[in-house]
Amino acid sequence: MAISEDRGHRLASVTGTATSDSTSKEAASSLNAPTVSYAGPLHSFNHGRGLTKSDAEGIPPMSKARRIALVATLTGAAFLNTLSSQSVVIILPSIGKELDIPENRQQWIVSSYSLAFGCFLLLWGRVADIHGKRLVFILGSAWVTVVTAANAFVPNEIAFDIFRALHGLGAAANVPTAIGILGVVFPPGKAKNYAFSCYAAGSPLGNAFGNIFSGLVAQYSNWKWVFGVSAIMAGATTVAGLVFIPQTPSLESSRDKGGGGPSPINVKPSIDWLGTFLITAGLLALMYALTEGNVVGWSVPWVPVVIVVSLTTILVFGVWQRYLEHRKSTAGTSLPPLIKVSIFANVRFTAAMVATGLFFASFNTFVIFATYHFQNYEALSPLQTALRFIPLGVGGAFANLIVAQLLHRVPAIFLLLCGTIAASSSSLLFAVPIPPGTSYFAYGLPAMLLSSVSADTVWPCLTLFTSQTLPREDQAIGGALINAVGQLGRALGLAISTAVQTAVMARARGVPIKDAGGMEAWEPTTLRGLRAGSYMNFGLGIASLIVVAAAFWNMGIIGKAETTSSHQAAAGGTRDVERGEATSS
Question: Which distant-in-sequence residues (6+ apart) come within 8 Å of 311 by Cβ?
């Protein structure tokens, strides 16, 4: 099948033909592949040759070693983002004790980071597309370095939460720009497959090693070292970004060098501040209500009110973006939308966003509920809990290597089905009534391995699809969008599963939900609540499976390089993304 936009927009062809076999050395050699060539309108792709001197924009030639270093640098940002979030979970009791933070407010140590990260992704994505992805990535990484180090020295709860939020603000700058950089540096093909697979491995690896790292620190040292080491890693990422990330074309530089004509390249780049305010405020209010709902209770009057107001604000944002996209004005004075909502007319793109949200609602909540099971129910130490997550990281590393080889050989639907089935199965193993005291190797180990396979299969497929669906000037905003959807999915999944867990525990104890109480070691009621939450996670995984099965059933290989013939074929059978009109290819 072939997907394209008319009026010179970017063509993204998806075929069902596998490429020839490759050797084990392809991963390194493919990173030396030529970059994408752009000639004519900004959205048009001319794959198969590098950028030439005649092109309006260009990326300096890069050696194989520098390409590998570039991918490692960007993957490090994704790894550090997840590690910074997950490593704090295990040391919450230590932080709370030293800073005198009550248990019912300790969740804000995690939530303040997540809220800021999720709500500012779209703003930073747009800024990166306008002013340069390299600049925003480096500034974001430097910001993360400073505020992470400061977290180790703050004296009280309020200051600690503020710096955690500032940390999330910086991470929101470098994570989506990393996807944007990969999207413009690597053309479709094996090199891009390896690059996106490596990048996608960063998040699950950070999740797994965040547990291990913080468990070791909690057992043998002071919790402040978690932030100290994270700051050192962030500083190294900043320096590596300065050295290895090339100058990528931005809308601002493209306009300065572009000629006349109606192309978007000649429209003065600017930021839709009203839209930025609407989406940031809407997401902030929604995620705040979802986070606090399980703490104060869903029956508290302000919680549903805030949810309704936030959803209304997000709806107004969508209407405003639609208006900006279709408003007629003179070139150089029109205000471009933060997000081109017409892209959602592409059914598969919309399905990819929905599947991303549902998948991370299942995957992320599985990791949290598994932590509850080991640490709260089985009363294991932080280190013992962390050791049980090692297969999640190791399995993810191996899955990443395999998926990178399969992206240009196997139709995407098979990879997505395997990933979503694995995600559902991992939660199911913690939901079924396995007798307490059963060996970890009988259910915990298989669940961790399945979870690692799921994350390192689904995430690279969906990020690669997103990158190849959007035009060049929207690569960073595309990375921001898919990360924001994933972050919202995490918040929704945790809120829903926790609500189910709390309701089951309250009913078993014969008390109102607000008086359900906490989890107790080896208590049958606690186990019943955790299993109920895991069943909810299983359901979310099945929902993501249904979405990908329905939307991507006849989808071919997304990781195959486009040739001239396939590019021309794509023009013959197109899907007009803006109007949603399709013809079969």
Answer: 282, 286
pTM of the predicted structure, to 2 decimals = 0.78
Confidence tier at 250 by pLDDT (50, 70, 90): low
Q: Are residues 331 and 422 in the same domain?
A: no
510 in the same domain as 362: yes
CA distance 353 to 477: 13
Supply the pLDDT for residue 2: 36
In the prediction, which pLDDT does 269 show?
61
CB 425 within 8 A of CB 453: no
Q: Which residues contact 43 (CB under 8 A, 6 or more apart)?
A: 5, 8, 9, 10, 264, 471, 472
Task: State how far the Cα of 416 lies from the Cα of 546, in Å rounded to an integer.
Answer: 11
Look up the CATH number of the domain holding residue 18: 1.20.1250.20
Q: Which domain holds residue 369?
A: 2-271+338-582
- pLDDT over 50 at 355, yes or no: yes
The dihedral through the CA atoms of 538, 493, 122, 163 has a sign that is: negative
Q: Are 358 and 316 in contact (CB under 8 A)?
A: no
The span from the CA of 289 to the CA of 169, in Å, is 19
**pLDDT at residue 131, as a whole number:** 87
Residues 290 and 219 in one domain: no
Same domain, 404 and 306: no
Q: What is the Rg, in whole angstroms, of the alpha carbon atoms belonging to the chain?
A: 23
Type and span of the H or E element at 300 = none
Q: For residue 114, count CB atoms less than 10 angstroms from its CB and return exposed for 0-12, middle for 13-18, buried for 19 or more.
A: buried
Beta bridge partners of 557: 15
Residues 230 and 348 in one domain: yes
Helix axes 64-90, 92-99, angle to 10 degrees: 60
Of 5, 15, 10, 4, the residue nearest 566 (C-alpha): 15
What is the rounded distance in angstroms from the CA atom of residue 32 to the CA atom of residue 232? 30
First to last CA, the chain: 6
Given a cut of 90, whether residue 566 has pLDDT beyond it is no
12's tokens: 């993204």
- Asked whether residue 226 falls in the same domain as residue 292, the answer is no
Alpha helices per DSSP H over 91-156: 92-99, 107-119, 121-131, 133-151
The share of the chain scoring above pLDDT 70, in percent, equals: 81
Number of domains observed in the structure of the chain: 2
Query: Could you tell me if 226 and 83 are in contact, meaning their C-beta atoms sit under 8 angstroms apart?
Result: no
Q: Which of 303, 337, 371 is the last residue of a domain?
A: 337
Same domain, 181 and 121: yes
Distance, in Å, from the CA atom of 157 to the CA atom of 100, rounded to the nearest integer, reads 7
Contact 288, 306 (CB under 8 A): yes
Mapping DSSP to helix (H, G, I), strand (E, B) and coil, where does residue 269 land?
coil
Two tokens at 272? Answer: 């839709």
Specify the 3-state DSSP secondary structure of 581.
Answer: strand
Residue 289 has, within 13 A of its CA and on its CB side, a CA count of 20
